[in-house]
Amino acid sequence: MDEASVRADLRAYITRELIRDEGYGLKDDEGIISGGLMDSFALAELGVYVEQAFGVYIPDPDLTVAKMDTLNQIVARVLRG
Amino acid sequence: MTLDLRAVLIITAAALVYAALLPARWRGWALFLGSAAAIYLLQPPLAIRFSDFLLPTATLVLATGLWWATRAPGQTFTREDGLALLLLAGVILALSLMRFVDAPYRLTPSRPPDPLMLAAGLLVVGLVLAGGWQVARRLLPAKGLLALLIVLLVAVFIIWKADALAVAVSAAWRGATGQDMSLASMSDLNWLGFSYVAFRLIHLLRDRMSGLLPALTLREHITYVIFFPSFIAGPIDRAERFADDLRALPALAGLDAPRWIEAATRITAGLVKKFVIADGLAQGMALNSVNAAQTDSPLWLWLLLYGYALRLFFDFSGYTDIAIGLGLLFGVRLPENFNRPYLKTSITAFWQSWHITLSNWARFYVFSPLSRWLLMRQPRPSPALIVLTTQTATMLVIGLWHGVTLNFVIWGVWHGLALFVHKQWSDRTRAWYRRLNETPRRKHLWTAATWFVTFHYVVLGWVWFALPDAGQAARVLLRLFGL
Q1: Of A18, A51, A60, which to mutate for an interface test with B (greatest number of B Cβ within 10 Å)?
Q2: How would DSSP label each residue in B27-75?
Q3: pLDDT number for residue B2
Q4: Tens digits of per-residue pLDDT, A31-66?
Q5: Separation of alpha carbons B151 and B149, rounded Å
Q6: C-alpha distances in Å from residue B452, one per residue of B346, B393, B420, B422, B449
Q7: Which of B6, B28, B159, B260 is most exposed by smallest CB count within 10 Å?
Q8: How far apart are CA B466 and CA B469, in angstroms?
């Protein structure tokens, strides 16, 4: 898994499925939940997607706004495995 | 004994000794032994013979057994763990010597059992648990065994919290001690701190299953489970965060002014909130089953309900302030539990700011795993059905945690449905809401309206909380609207 492809994949998934606005220009350090683009309930969906797409299981206590609010944080967590 | 002014003064004096005189490397041990002793001193007296000594002992046995079960792969039993186990047994047996002390000078709530019988009992229980563990680990895979322990813990929790089951246990226990079984009641089983201990232990078991839990020594594990400032009413900290604080204790400056000032401010604020404001409101200005039965006027009922809502907040958040302040005195920064919950403008935001550590626990161990399980199913249920199921289940767990009664079921569903409705609403209005920022005046009006609706929905929900009888609660809800 290289960082660029993980980032591109997650950006596409988040804007398409969670923000539901494919044209949205999501920035790397933009607060996705704190900025009101999606709600914290979508974190469970994100957890399932990461597990299915990258084979990385993120434990439930890591699926929090504090730890998964920006694309940078999410990509780093996925790459950590 | 509870965390009242006298207890706070005693603990503060102990904190001064701890900070000024105790060698820094002993601080962790002091919190471990102090917490083990404190859970006996804080336990209220109970009617069944020796039960107010045996229940705190059961807490320590349970916590010790589950440390063994949740050790990290490859983690060995070290000399330090052996010392912690010996000291823990020493605390229990030393406190049982209170049996020979006259009642006015006794630190335990009542006369403890015979120390020799107690030592023999502890040995037998230890051997039975060790034998049971050896058998169980041959029959079950590691994760299956941890899951079974969670189920057993939940079963004990339900027995203790469900009226009929608790009375049956009380009657059986009274029978065993030769006491009058007809007097059996739920109050016989007032196992102080068990609700919080059980949820901390489930967190430890579940996080060991997912590999998230760091290796903890027996001393760290026990101190986390029974840390005395948060033992009675939380907050429910997370073990890895708590362990970081414990490990930093030897390097902590003993009497640093900013920490002591912060602690003193929190404790003072907490004492005023809990013992002045909340207890003041409780003197006839907060809804209860007696004044609800005596009041016909909807206006008075509303005032009593507002009074109850404020009393509940000031009582619980005041208690949390005291707990956080006391934790700070000893160098442990417990997590916050409240963040202006009554000023929030949605039910979702309310539950992110009321009893935050319990909400987080429920999110991690109920909502999130259940959501993931439903999302993984083929065919996948509709998003609305997933949200409805998970929100209601989560709030039901939070409701039942307070007590296994019809009222708490209704209260849980009350909030679960509101969270579901709010999620549907916010999904459909997110773009419109972002545009609202462009017209500040409309946004202010909208904020005021959503605050009003949220606050009153929460306040009306407290009727189920304040009145233990569901029929009376339903009648009061109707009377509030003149029906």
Answers
A1: A60
A2: HHHHHHHHHHHHHHHHSPP-SSTTHHHHHHHHHHHHHHHHHHHTPPTT-
A3: 66
A4: 998 887 888 778 999 999 999 999 999 998 999 888
A5: 5
A6: 10, 26, 19, 15, 5
A7: B6
A8: 9
pTM score over 0.90: yes
Q: In the Cβ-directed half-sphere of A14, how many Cα atoms lie within 13 Å?
A: 30
B433-436: long-range contacts, CB 8 A cutoff, minimum separation 24: B433/A36, B434/A36
In chain B, where the domains are located: 5-251, 257-329, 341-480
- Bridge-partner residues for B404, per DSSP? B162
Dist CA B233 CA B194 (whole Å): 10
Cβ separation of B372 and A36 shorter than 8 Å? no
Which of B238, B368, B434 is the closest to A63 by Cβ? B368
Q: How far is CA B87 from CA A32, A49, B27, B106, B221, in A?
A: 49, 48, 15, 21, 14
B chain contacts of residue A40, beta-carbon cutoff 8 Å: 352
Whether residues A59 and B211 touch (CB distance < 8 A) is answered with: yes
What single-letter DSSP state applies at residue B162? B
Whether B402 is a known active-site residue: answer: yes
Cβ count near A23 (within 10 Å): 5
Share of chain B above pLDDT 90, in %: 83
Domains within chain A, CATH numbers bracketed: 3-80 (1.10.1200.10)
User: Using a CB-CB distance cutoff of 8 angstroms, which residues of chain B are in contact with residue A47?
Assistant: 368, 372
**Structural contact between residues B197 and B443, judged by C-beta atoms closer than 8 angstroms:** no
Mean pLDDT value across residues B448-454: 96
Active-site position among B203, B221, B355, B402: B402
Which amino acid, one-letter code, is at A68? M
Phi, psi of B162 (to 5 degrees): -90, 125
pLDDT of residue B427: 82
Q: Who's near B374: CB < 8 A, 6+ residues apart?
A: B380, B381, B386, B389, B390
